[in-house]
Amino acid sequence: MNRPDAAAALAAALLLAAPAAAQPRDTLTVGITQYPSTLHPNIESMAAKSYVLGFARRPVTAYDADWRLTCLLCEELPSLENGLAVRETTPDGRPGIRVTWRLREGLRWGDGQPVTSADILFAWEAGRNFETGFGGAEFFRSAYEATAPDARSVTIRFDRVTFDFAALGDLVLPAHIERPRWQGDPRNYRTRTAYDQEPANPGLYHGPFRITAVQPGAGVTLERNPLWSGAAPAFRRVNIRTVENTAALEAQLLAGQVDMIAGELGLPLDQATALQRRAGSRFRFEFRPGLVYEHVDLNLDNPILADRRVRQALIQALDREQITQRLYEGRQPVAHTGVNPLDVMHDPEVRRWRHDPARAAALLEEAGWRPGPDGIRRNAAGERLTVEFMTTAGNRPRETVQQVIQGMWRQAGIEARIRNEPPRVLFSETLSRRRFTGAAMFAWISSPELVPRTTLHSDEIPRAERNWSGQNYTGFRNAEMDALLEAIPVELDRERRRVLWHRLQAIYAEELPVLPLFFRADAHIWPTWLEGVRPTGHLNPSSLWSEGWRPAR
After folding, report:
1. CA 217, 190, 264: angle at the middle one, nearest 5?
2. Cα 233 to chain center, whole Å?
3. With contact defined as beta carbons under 8 Å apart, do 391 and 420 qualify?
4. Measured distance CA(212)–CA(225) in Å, rounded
5. Beta pairing partners, 439
6. Distance between CA atoms of residues 275 and 334, nearest Å
7. Residue 500: which residues within 8 A CB-CB, separation 6 or more?
8. 419-436: per-residue pLDDT in tens?
9. Which of 56, 60, 386, 389 is most buried when burial is the number of CB atoms within 10 A of its CB?
10. Which of 85, 30, 95 is nearest to 61 (CA)?
11. CB within 8 A of 15, min separation 6: which ones?
12. Bridge partners of residue 87, in order along the sequence
């Protein structure tokens, strides 16, 4: 065995003893609890992907930390007043609108190619072909024509006028790289995209950082992008480390293996508040209430769950107030609908299901489920009232909630069989292809007044012929809900739109395709030496403004 000599050992000891403040802070290591199932910005919806890509890409428009729609790649938000949006009649005689976005000057992909209108046109063309499997199908149905007046301008014509027509989101892809992979075989594009086959290709990114290395399931390394045209980021490198077990993630923070934990995918509130009590002087904590909705999706193709009486019994068997009080000190309000009280369209009068074991029992009796000898209910055929119950493996507090729910359901005679999976498997395979058979607990993150078409409209049920796009994992089919989801976007009067929103929430609360649990407050934890982080509390992550993060002077 080789041993260092005395001089080398002394030098190593002095190096280890050097105060942390003496080291240059040009690298930031961020811990998150999930790993993206894909890095393609338009395929599958996952918070981990949005957070990672926030460092490396910019959408055309996004909601900022003040919940205002703003331009990130464009020069000016289109409006009827500035002439970038113009009402018109569609070729088939319907009221439509023509909207133009103009890209900022000097935008380039990381390989030096300019970001142009051709990149938006390709993303639009790929999305219009539903075999591609992009999300947001309704946008692509409505956006019936896209043209490029010049290299920096794109005009899209819509067959309806919506209240949020200025929002374009992340509709830009490097056509010089992705079009050859898509052309001729759209159905298999999602397995051939360079975002997954060559994720370190610099030409995929146009943000302040670019991805230079990935360790599947473990982490992503980003380096400063020398071709970024905006403010230069302070950090040379950002390491995103995935630690799915929240106890292990906390241990790595305390050991200095990660500098910060992203609130978008970090420690649950109870764990973060306990950490603040123990180590509050070492870190900055910000608890940001936001549009994060913890819930349980139910597969309505399951004959047991197809019965609305059973779904109503499931919610009344739960003491959600007790769950939030005991586990979160009441800091995460019980949800009665998928619309957060912070959202302007929330209905405070929506039906509220209280904990009512007697009513839950009566509903189950009415549905034909009688108590069995072991306490689990059975139907006339002797089949047990059993539901498979899934969530993200390794998220300790979420698994704790799951076990509490399991116990409460058992008291009502309902057997919940737990089968958890890593997030990247649960989201990319089990949910997106509707392979779960019973219940699945996870969270949706939304932006202000986001119409939930993709999760509730019957046309958004994932299916093979649409290459599994859509997020209506429950299989919910309701004609009135479909009509509301189509009417809300085109109602420009806010008060009339509010009436429609309230009716949507009433149907949701009555039908219960999803069991509402609570609205989350995210715990953002970063070191005292880091400045500039602004949590948003909604779908667009704080990393979209990471060029403003810097060590305190």
Report:
1. 45
2. 25
3. yes
4. 10
5. 298, 389
6. 24
7. 484, 487, 488, 491
8. 999 988 999 899 999 999
9. 56
10. 85
11. none
12. 97
